[in-house]
Design goal:
The structure is a single chain. By secondary structure, this protein is of the alpha+beta class. The protein has two domains: about 170 residues, 3-Layer(aba) Sandwich (D-Maltodextrin-Binding Protein, domain 2); about 150 residues, Periplasmic binding protein-like II (D-Maltodextrin-Binding Protein, domain 2, 3-Layer(aba) Sandwich), CATH 3.40.190. The strands form two sheets. Strands 3, 4, 5, 6, 7, 8, 9, 10, 11 and 12 form a ten-stranded mixed β-sheet that branches. A two-stranded antiparallel ribbon has the order 1-2. The longest helix has 16 residues. It is globular.
C-alpha cells in the first residue's frame, strides 16, 4: 500500500462524498483490522487519496485485535478497530469511543444505534461453501447434514477464538440446534458430534476456510457469502448454501478506540465508510450488502428476506468466554 510522508492538506470535495464541502485533514491514522487485503484495497487507498491522511495497518484475527485493544487500555496505540461483527466485537465495548456520524441518518433504521459504539458498515450472511465436484450426491442443506460420515475430516472450519466469522458460525450453530438456547444440552451434544467430524483439523483464519474448499482440500466449509461470491467470480466450482434451520445475518462493524491519538481522523474515517461512494464501490468490488438504504445490494446475493434469518444474536462477554471454553474442551480434549 502506498505510504506518504506526514502532510497537511485542504481539499474541496464537490459531490464526491458528502456534497460540496471543504475538508481539512492532517497526520496519521492507525487501523487495527481483520479484513482481507482485497477488502482493504477497496477502502484505504481512496481514503488516503481523498484526505491526505497516512494510514498504518495492523492486521490480525478480530479476537486477537480486541485483546490488544483491551491490553492497551487507556494508552491505545490504534485509532480504529475495523472488521468483525456486532456480536463478536461487543465484548470490547468499554474500550470504544461513542460517535454518531452525520451519515448515520442514511443507514437502515435498525443500524442506527444510539450508543454510537459499534457502527454497521455492511451486512453479511454466514453460509456453507460447497465444492460442487467433491459434494456430488451428498445432501448439504443444514447443520444435521454435516454429521454425514462421508464428510469426516472434510469440513473446513476456523478457530472461533481467532476468527469472528467462525465465532458467528458457532453461535449460529448453537442457536439453531438449541432452538434459541445456546447452552442447552441438545445444542452441546450436537457440537460434540460436529467436533468429531472435524477429525482434529481446525484452521487458523477465516480466509483459509473458503480457500481450502475452492482448492479441493475440503468438501464443505463454514464461511460467509462474500468469500463464496468472490471465489465463484474467479471460476471456482463452489456455491453457497444457507442453513435451512436458520441463517445468521451479521453486521460488519467499525469502532473508534477510546482515547485514541488521532480522534478527528478516526471520526473522518467512519464518516467515509458510511458515505454513498465508499459503500457503493465496496459493494461492487466485494459483493457486500450495504448498510445504507440508498445503495443497492449485489444482484449475485439473495435478498435477506429470502433467507431463514435469525439476525444478530447478542452474547455477553461472559457468555462468549464460556462458549469458547466449552468448544475448546471438546476440540482439544
Amino acid at each position: 500500500m502506498k505510504k506518504r510522508s506526514r502532510i497537511i492538506t485542504c481539499l474541496t470535495m464537490v459531490g464526491l462524498l458528502f456534497g460540496s464541502i471543504s475538508v481539512c485533514a492532517e497526520g496519521n491514522l492507525v487501523i487495527y483490522t481483520a479484513r482481507s487485503d482485497s477488502e482493504i484495497e477497496l477502502v484505504v487507498p481512496a481514503f488516503e487519496e481523498a484526505y491526505g491522511v497516512e494510514v498504518e495497518l495492523v492486521t490480525g484475527g478480530i479476537g486477537e485485535l480486541i485483546k490488544r485493544v483491551e491490553a492497551e487500555g487507556n494508552s491505545p496505540q490504534g485509532d480504529i478497530l475495523l472488521g468483525g461483527t456486532y456480536t463478536s466485537n461487543l465484548s470490547g465495548s468499554n474500550y470504544y469511543e461513542s460517535y454518531i456520524s452525520p451519515e448515520m441518518e442514511n443507514l437502515a433504521e435498525e443500524y442506527r444505534r444510539e450508543d454510537g459504539l459499534l457502527t454497521t458498515t455492511s451486512i453479511i450472511a454466514v453460509c456453507m461453501i460447497v465444492n460442487d465436484n467433491l459434494a456430488e450426491g451428498i445432501k448439504l442443506e443444514g447443520w444435521e447434514d454435516l454429521l454425514n460420515p462421508e464428510l469426516k475430516g472434510k469440513i473446513a472450519f476456523a478457530d472461533p477464538a481467532a476468527s469472528s466469522n467462525a465465532y458467528n458460525l458457532l453461535v449460529n450453530m448453537l442457536y439453531d440446534m438449541g432452538e434459541g438456547d445456546v447452552f442447552s444440552d441438545a445444542t452441546w451434544e450436537y457440537v460434540g458430534k460436529f467436533v468429531d467430524q472435524l477429525d482434529g483439523k481446525i484452521l487458523s483464519s477465516s480466509s483459509a476456510t473458503p480457500r481450502g474448499v475452492a482448492d479441493g482440500e475440503y468438501t464443505v466449509g463454514l464461511t460467509h457469502e462474500v468469500y463464496v461470491a468472490n471465489y465463484i467470480a474467479e471460476g471456482a466450482p463452489v456455491h453457497a448454501q444457507y442453513f435451512s434451520e436458520g441463517t445468521y445475518v451479521a453486521e460488519d462493524v467499525v469502532a473508534i478506540i477510546k482515547n485514541c491519538e488521532n480522534m478527528d481522523n478516526a471520526k473522518l474515517f467512519v464518516d467515509y465508510l458510511l458515505s454513498y461512494d465508499c459503500q457503493n464501490n465496496y459493494m461492487i468490488g466485494n459483493s457486500t450488502r450495504p448498510s445504507r438504504t440508498d445503495v443497492a445490494s449485489p444482484e449475485t446475493l439473495p435478498d435477506v428476506e429470502e433467507l431463514n434469518s435469525i439476525g444478530e444474536y447478542a452474547v455477553s462477554s461472559e457468555d462468549k468466554a464460556q462458549i469458547l471454553d466449552r468448544f475448546n474442551e471438546l476440540m482439544y480434549q
